[in-house]
Amino acid sequence: MNWSGFLAMGGYAAYVWPSFGLTLIVLIHNVWAARRLHESARNEALRRIDSAGSGS
Amino acid sequence: MPATTVWQAMSLTYQRDLVLAFRRWEQVAQPVVFFLMVTTLVPLALSPELNELRQIAGGVLWIAALLAALLGLEFLYRADHADGTLEQMLLSGQPLALLAIAKTAAHWTACGLPLVLVSPLLAVSLGVLPGALGTLMLSLALGTGILSALGAVGAALTLGLRRGNLLLSLLVLPLTMPALIFGARAVDMAVHGEVARGPMLLLAAMCVLSLTLAPLAVSAALRISLE
Amino acid sequence: MTWTWFHKLASPPHFYRIAGRLAPWFGWPAFLLIVVGLYGGLVLAPADYQQGEGFRILYVHAPSAWLSMFVYATMAIAAGIGLVWRIKLAHAVAAAAAPVGAWFAFLALATGSMWGKPMWGTWWVWDARLTSELILLFLYMGFIALRASIDERERADRAGAVLALVGIVNLPIIHYSVYWWNTLHQGSTITKIGKPSITFDMLWPLLAMMFGFTLYFGAVLMTRLRAEVIRRERDASWLRGELA
User: Fold this and answer.
1) What is the pLDDT of residues A12-49, one digit of tens each?
2) Domain boundaries, chain A
3) CB burial class (10 A; 0-12, 13-18, 19+) of residue A33?
4) Which residue in B14, C150, C201, C225 has its CB near the most CB atoms, within 10 A?
């Protein structure tokens, strides 16, 4: 495995690696954002249930 | 007493809208003045050379007309929404889509048509030769028609929203891009002495399509916005 | 065949549980396919004759572009179902899908631009596909903006649905117009983006990436949907049993 050749990408490294990097960032971000949304929705719902329970 | 027929309802709506539009001259004049001013910006920004201006005249006139017509969309439903007339239309039992056609037609008469009529003057100022003026006016007539139809959908969806006008422009502009492509191309061809049959036919097809389908979307959107 | 499974699907508590169980079934295969596709595309596939190693950007550009269109179609169909049959969950699907689709459109544009710079010499070219993708991004932003500016959820759902349907009807027209417009000016932008002559060992990683991205969307959608359902059903009694 020719590492330096691989990283150089035939001279196109400056374009190839940022493209793949950006893609990975976007993919990871969307997973993280989805999970965070779910969690905050859950927490908020639980808070509402609790306050409704204790208030009544 | 016989109930109002659909035709009567449509023509009454059309006439009423026109009367209201022309009662306040500024409303009719604003889009036209805007059209004029934007067209004036171009030579100032680029070059006073008519030969150069002629090359881009088609695109410039089309963009300016589209933006001016977009300006005029605000007034389409706003006043009627504010004073409750729109709800009356909803409750009237008349087919809402047909009333929407009547309102769209009135909007075009009060906003699009003046732009079309003024366009030859502006075209000449950009170096366009008389031979191309017919194509220009026809293409703009179709284009502003398309914008009135599609714009009505946007206006109905954004009824009563704050900053609705900006949102309206963002929603409507992408939908008008095909018309812009073919309309500007048609004028370009005419300016260079060719017959612009292809683009004009496509433009006409788009106009018919939008006039047929948009009112359905408008009527759905009005019900959604008013309930 | 009874349609009870379909009706059950439209019931929020049932759907919430199903979405929760489906998510990993989408997620892990997606992860695998993407890793395999990346390895295949970056390491195994031979360099392109004309574009050299630069063509490898295809492996992220094409799936992003494909997903951006697939998600818009999903969004519009879901919104249409919600509008016509008044199924609230369908509106939730549209709302959850839109931001993801917009991200893919953005990614397609960004990777397309990075691909273009070494190939055409400029960061941006009014190439038919890029222009078409840009307009798609505008349509996404319009949908998201409209929903965001309406406070009442039901009105936002239904107004967004009308807009999405108008958008999907216009999409073929826009697509065709932009392609036609681009052919007018042959000289300037004869673009080879996305069209290296493709052999099988170049093709399979692309297919892996496409499937991987699609499954990835499924996984993210399921999770976002669960969040949507919770928010929409905030005061429903089933939530207590489900979450506590």
Assistant:
1) 888 899 999 999 999 999 999 999 999 999 999 888 88
2) 20-56
3) middle
4) C225
Is C125 within a domain?
A: yes
**What is the C-alpha separation between C11 and C154, in angstroms, rounded?**
17
DSSP one-letter string for B116-136: HHHHHHHHHHTT--GGGHHHH
| Complex confidence, ipTM | 0.90
Is C1 among the domain residues? no
Q: How far apart are CA B9 and CA B7, in angstroms?
A: 5
Residue C4 lies in a domain: no
In this complex, whether A and B touch, counting 3 or more CB pairs under 8 angstroms, is no
Q: What is the domain extent for residue C73?
A: 14-243
Measured between CA atoms, the residue of chain A closest to residue C233 is: A45
| Residue B113 CB burial class (10 angstroms; 0-12, 13-18, ≥19) | middle
Give whole-number Cα distances, C165 to C10, C162, C212, in Å: 21, 5, 27
- Contact indicator for B53, B42 with CB cutoff of 8 Å: yes
Q: Which residues of C touch A29 (CB under 8 A)?
A: 103
Token pair in block for residue B177: 């891009």
